[in-house]
Design goal:
Layout lengths: L18 E3 L16 E3 L7 E5 L6 H11 L6 H4 L1 H4 L19 E3 L1 E2 L2 E2 L2 H16 L2 H9 L4 H14 L6 H13 L7 H8 L35 H8 L8 E6 L2 E5 L2 H21 L1
């Protein structure tokens, strides 16, 4: 490898609000944002008229929201995938993760009530319109990747960046790690593999057998790990210039990026002290 990576036993990763050591090819799963799913009509029945999909939701969260919005049994939307004829990239192999575009969708169009198939198709078509246009497609090509890879990186950025202002820097860390042949080592990818969201990653977690285990696997995960918004995709094709290899959100509003491992360790130590103080005060 072009550069040495500290022994795995000494490396702990983090996502937003936690220490993040980014190495090549990993992904981070986003924590669901507490956003109202449905905007309600003003009539007496208060039936939902739209479905809101927040940035960074995983496909499973989207399926559950579709079922709830349409008052269908849990699992209905996921089961409808084969019938939806989604226009996904070949690389997706039928998995819509990353292409269920976050936006507000009507539950009735042209007098017709939405179905799971129509909603999921609407989301994928919206993603294709956003992602396949000249700016993003050309930007992906400029960075020697295809659009699907750009969306995969964007899903990591969406999960990892504490603020939109940090997205370009997080993107650069991902690229720098990839270019140096370093594993991404992001716990968010482990969270995705385990279908959870947590700030705590154990050594046992880092040994799970999964293509999303970015501690053990090199390069990008096989699919996106959430459904990113446009800002994250733009960051993926236009990363901020810099030499950073590590970052950690020491406290809210204070994310520190560095290329120096020792400096990163000091930042991580400060993060841990802040966590301990928060526990004591809590």
């Amino acid at each position: 490898m072009p550069m040495n990576t500290p022994p795995r036993s000494t490396i702990r990763l983090t996502r937003r609000g936690r220490l993040v050591l980014i190495a090549t090819g990993a992904v981070v799963a986003a924590t669901a944002v507490a956003v109202p799913l449905l905007s309600l009509d003003s009539d007496a029945e208060k039936k939902p008229t739209t479905l809101v999909i927040p940035e960074g939701w995983r496909a499973g969260q989207v399926y559950d929201a579709v079922d709830k919005a349409l008052a269908l049994p849990v699992g209905t939307a996921k089961k409808s995938l084969p019938k939806a004829n989604l226009k996904l990239p070949n690389d997706a192999e039928g998995n819509p993760e990353g292409y269920l575009f976050p936006a507000t969708y009507p539950l009735e169009r042209n007098g017709k009530k939405a179905t799971p198939e129509s909603l999921l198709s609407f989301m994928v078509n919206t993603a294709n319109q956003k992602f396949n246009g000249a700016p993003i497609a050309a930007g992906a090509q400029r960075n020697a990747m295809n659009v699907y890879q750009a969306v995969t990186i964007a899903s990591i950025i969406q999960a990892e960046a504490a603020t939109k202002a940090d997205m370009g820097k997080v993107a650069r860390v991902v690229f720098n790690r990839l270019e140096r042949g370093m594993p991404l080592q992001m716990d968010s990818t482990l969270n995705y593999a385990l279908n959870r969201s947590t700030l705590k990653t154990t050594s046992a977690d880092t040994r799970i057998d999964s293509p999303y285990n970015s501690y053990q696997r090199m390069g990008l995960p096989p699919t996106p790990i959430d459904n990113p918004g446009v800002e994250a995709v733009r960051a993926a094709i236009s990363p901020t210039p810099g030499d950073w290899l590590y970052f950690v959100t020491v406290k809210p509003g204070d994310t520190r990026f560095t290329a120096n491992y020792e400096e990163h360790q000091r930042n991580v130590a400060e993060f841990n002290r802040n966590q301990q103080s928060a526990k004591k005060s809590g």
